[in-house]
Design a protein that fits this description.
The protein is α+β, with helices and mostly antiparallel strands. The protein has four domains: about 130 residues, Helix Hairpins; about 45 residues, Roll (SH3 type barrels), CATH 2.30.30.60; about 80 residues, Alpha-Beta Plaits, CATH 3.30.70.100; about 45 residues, no CATH class. The chain is built from seven helices and twelve strands. The strands form four sheets. The protein has a five-stranded antiparallel beta sheet with strand order 4-3-2-1-5. Helix 1 packs across helix 2 and helix 2 runs antiparallel to helix 3. The radius of gyration is 44 Å and the shape is elongated.
Amino acid sequence: MQQQIHVPREKKYLNLKFEFSAACSGEFKSKGGTMQSELTAKAERIGFVLREYGAEMLQAMVILVVGLVVLQFTMRKLKVFIDKKTKDSSRANTILYIVYILLLVVIITSALITLGFDSRNVFRLIILSALAIIAALLVLRPYLPTLPFKVGNTVKVGALLGKIEATTMVNTRMKTFDGKTVFIPNSKILNDFVINYHFTPTRRIKIDIPIRHVRDILKTKQLMEAIMIEDPRVLLKPARPVVYTLNLTDGCVKMGARCWVNNTKFWLTQCDLLEKFLTRMERENIVLAGRRQAIRVFHETPLQLSGGDDNPGIETQAGPGAEAPSFSAVSDDDEM
């Protein structure tokens, strides 16, 4: 007859807990051992690669870093040299791109050969890639959007007026005449209107001057034409200097002088001609038309404004239905 042994519930719980803990500990130890072995294998492989190819990898890295530094320095010096030899920015940029690609190919080839790659395969791959890039630049460049100016041109882009200092693939650097440096995105330039003042070698000067008396028309015309002809900067082609009678109003006669000069001399010539016009007209007693205003006074009853014997006064007429005086100013400028 078998004898049953009674085990308390608390002791059973402790035995189960001990068995579960032992199982988890064994599983963790087995996983930890596996991970440790994998890390050890990776470290051994890395150590083997460094022992076998460490020197070559270090030499290739040195060649690549030093080559890129020398490449940047060489390209800066070459850009300065090319800018002195040619004013065509598009041609200069094409030459710089080609030289940059060729030198970069040489640097990458040297680094790969140092690492132990087959030199024949490296040369074939890199030369084919370089030729493909150069051919794409030469063939596709005429069909790509180009900027309508060159470095050194004076242009107006939208509301900005200045001189182009440099252009890149992303933006254009402009120096305005008040000393500001503006970076304009090329996308804005291509989508906005552009006035290039160096597109043609000459430019027309336009100066309008209003005079007071009609009897001075012929005298003023001869005087302005003589001043323009005497100036050596004024050109006879594409048209001779001429003066037009542009407009006639109650207050003035507007005279317009037109002449052609070289683009580089436009601003100074225009300022000098205007100064000569004003100085000579003052000397010849030609009266310029100034701003003139007429005042009309309306009142419901006639008024007599007496100013004494020297000033007999001004009689005003009443406006219909007006309760108080009102004033309106009429200017000759508004009529013109």
